[in-house]
Amino acid sequence: MMKVFSENPQEAMLHIAQSATRSDGTPFDNKTKKSLEAAQRYLSAGIVSGYRNPLSHETHNGLSATGVITEQHCLDALSVLSLLHTRLDDC
After folding, report:
1. Signed CA dihedral, 46, 42, 6, 90: sign only
2. Ranges of each domain in the chain
3. Which backbone phi and psi does 27 adopt, to 5 degrees?
């Protein structure tokens, strides 16, 4: 996951901010682009670590009964996934 959105532009497989421009058509500065790339990298890794991994190791009933991962948490995670997917579609 982290290699796909690597901090090193030569190693990264996807670049969500490379062609991003302001409304006047001028490119964003490199610091802004790096921040956008880092956000995509960490949000993507967080979804995998926080939702996919625990649900692979524990039963859904066990996690939801304790409130660790509730239905509302899963719906919120789907919103984040939607954002991540939209950004990937645009790159």
Report:
1. positive
2. 39-90
3. -75, 155
In this predicted model, what pLDDT tens digit does every residue of 11-52 receive, in sequence order? 888 888 888 899 999 999 999 999 998 999 999 999 988 888
Token pair for 48: 């995998």
| Beta-bridge partners for 15 | none
Distance, CA of 30 to CA of 35 (rounded, Å): 9
> In the block, which residue shows the tokens 């949000």?
43
Average pLDDT score, the chain: 87
Instruction: Say yes or no to pLDDT of 5 above 80.
Output: no
Cβ-based burial of 40 (10 A; exposed 0-12, middle 13-18, buried ≥19): buried
CA-derived radius of gyration, the chain: 16
The pair of three-digit structure tokens given for residue 70, joined into one six-digit string: 């509730």
